Amino acid sequence: MPNFSIDQHTSAQFNAELEEARKNLMEMGGIVEQQIEIALKSLIDVDIELAEKTIKMDKEVNKMEVKIDKETTQILAKRHPAATDLRFIISVSKTVNDLERIGDEASKIAQQSIELSKDGAGPQGYVELRHIGEKVREMVQASLDAFARLDTDAAFEVLQQDKKVDLEYNTAVRTLVTKMMEDPRTITRAINVLWSLRAFERIGDHARNIAMNVIYLVKGKDVRHKKLEKIEETLNK
Amino acid sequence: MPNFSIDQHTSAQFNAELEEARKNLMEMGGIVEQQIEIALKSLIDVDIELAEKTIKMDKEVNKMEVKIDKETTQILAKRHPAATDLRFIISVSKTVNDLERIGDEASKIAQQSIELSKDGAGPQGYVELRHIGEKVREMVQASLDAFARLDTDAAFEVLQQDKKVDLEYNTAVRTLVTKMMEDPRTITRAINVLWSLRAFERIGDHARNIAMNVIYLVKGKDVRHKKLEKIEETLNK
């Protein structure tokens, strides 16, 4: 963990505990990234096995959430972290929460793949799905990389990406609704695509939250609910 | 705060800080409850003014989130809370997070009211909306009451309610999709109702999370991702 204060602790045990929390967070992040990838593939290929795998992985993600939350609580109780260490624990804890919710959204997407598989495949709306799905997977990856490298510039890029994804999502929903009106026989399938799009859009929001946690960790500033320009100012100070 | 350990602190200042956090949490909860009520009314009455009021209130909710998070972080840094005090701080922090997300969902509902108002009112799907909306508002209220009174039985009831709401939500969505297929002219409006239903269902999930925070606070047990029967066993121990 470069540029980070954990090396200066007198207690080697404390260092080890912080490093363990960081390691577990990154491991959880890796599983969640995989979940998004598999969920997206299950949609595009209408592959039920992959969908079931995504849902199964969510159990693992939930266990990691409980485990890491327990670890960070113990660190708070025993070590009384202050300054950067405290911000680190708080950021880990918030990020774990976002990762768990991303896992939930990936499961919901997998559930939609299963529903879609029931009435045969059709490419309607899938171009947008694939595009937005890949984009938010990259955002999650980028936000976790930013966390690992304490890179606020990379974190800020994720915030910018999220703005774009929100716009693309709105366009995709509008297109889908228009198609539904043109051909009402596709309504059931279109609703499944709609829920999947929504889940991907939510994943993008969680990646944005993780990026904000990175900024809080590094700069000590809570930038939630602030406009991008204001956040940029904070970063350049 | 009856049955709670804050009375035993040697530092009157520490007591005052915990009490302040509790007070602010409840104040935030009150605003969010009101937000749900107004958002629901804005939908039913297709009242744009109320919708705009809901969205405006969200700014207040966001400010409270940042404020309370800052307070709890300061308590962690200065007071090194342990045992129940630490669980109290963690529960407040998690509950604040859920309340903020409820506020977001209320805003999304208000946004749908504004969309619905554009093409004139229609009662389609509103019976379910009103029913589910009122139910989740009660759940949020009950979860906050359970927090204030440290009442795990009341918290458990919220978990049970959430199961019921999820079932009702699924039925409502199916009904709505059937109606869309029968009369495709209603698609745009039905999609707005669908998003509103989803938002209410999510609010129910957050009420459930708050109830789980209460159980964690009082019993020291993390019951997330556990089945209701298992949670009931934990409470009877």
From TrEMBL, chains A, B:
Q: Which InterPro entries match?
A: PhoU (IPR028366), PhoU-like_sf (IPR038078), PhoU_dom (IPR026022)
Tell me where in this chain the PhoU domain is found: 25-111, 129-214
Can the keyword Cytoplasm be found in this entry's annotation?
yes
GO BP: any one term: intracellular phosphate ion homeostasis
Give its localization: Cytoplasm
A single GO cellular-component term on record: cytoplasm
Q: What is its main location?
A: cytoplasm
Which keywords does this Swiss-Prot/TrEMBL entry list?
Cytoplasm, Phosphate transport, Transport
Function, in words: Plays a role in the regulation of phosphate uptake.
Q: Which family does it belong to?
A: Belongs to the PhoU family.
State the protein's name: Phosphate-specific transport system accessory protein PhoU
- The encoding gene: phoU
